[in-house]
Here is the input.
Amino acid sequence: MELETVVRELAPQLLRYALGRTGDPTLAEEVAQDALAALVQRWRRHGPPECAAAFAFAIARRRAFRLTFQRRLMAPLHALLDGPSPVPGPEQRAAARIDLDRTLAALGRLAGKDRDALLLVAAGELGLSEGAGILGISVSALKMRVHRARQRLARILEESDGTAERTSRNAAAADTGSRS
Amino acid sequence: MEPLNGPHETRLRRTLAPAPDAVERVVRQALAGPRREPALRRLLPAASLIAVLLAAAGLLVVPLPDGRLPNGRAVRRSVASIETVGEVLLVRPKHGPVSLVSSYPEPSSPTGTLIVIHGGGQ
Here is the structure.
């Protein structure tokens, strides 16, 4: 298989996984790019690794952890130097963005280990054996984590959707009442 | 395990799906080679850490102008070296003559015991 084909196949999977892990599209691009650049470097110097996806995801996982940690560490300093972050405008509140925010918030409420397992397998579309290898656990333990994460995510998303629906219904009712 | 194509997994993949231009950018930059940060920028965190550690060590070790250490203890400097050569005890002053046993009374005479061992007798 050609290097460029592999990189093109892995890029969207890594971006999805990294966005789920970091919650920030800019950081996600950085993570995916670093992982793919390491894969390209390895491929050109020593030939393709045994499993290109496992290789790239292992690097993406470490990089995502480091960047998230750095961002949390530097957050007070950035807040001090840059002032409060600007209030998002109406464009940023578009439906797609709201859905992404809601999904990211739901992911954030999962336990870290369960979230990582779900993101590797569901968002990254990694095989169970590769995912288990990256996390350093057995396949059955990975299945257990993914199962637990899916159940909890489904519950959180259903609750969140219900709340959002009620809020929009109330807002619509209030709007109608004020016009009449 | 159930297949991962339920409504929530599909939604997860759909909402996390990257924009095509982001994918293209990542692929292009990855194939172009690893990013090279300037050497100074890469070494900056390590250099800052070393500087902070050195400053902390300096504060703890270097005596203050009044001859005291930062923890309040006075700096003690030896005035003589003492060693044994066989059965002989050698005392070598480092800075000029040192009086081991005073032959005249001093205002605050030191107290203690001096044992001189010579040829097995005391």
Summary: The two ends of chain B are 90 Å apart (CA to CA). The interface with chain A takes residues 1-2, 4, 6, 8-9, 11-13, 15-18, 22-23, 25-27, 29-31, 33-35 of chain B (CB under 8 Å). Chain B has a mean pLDDT of 73.
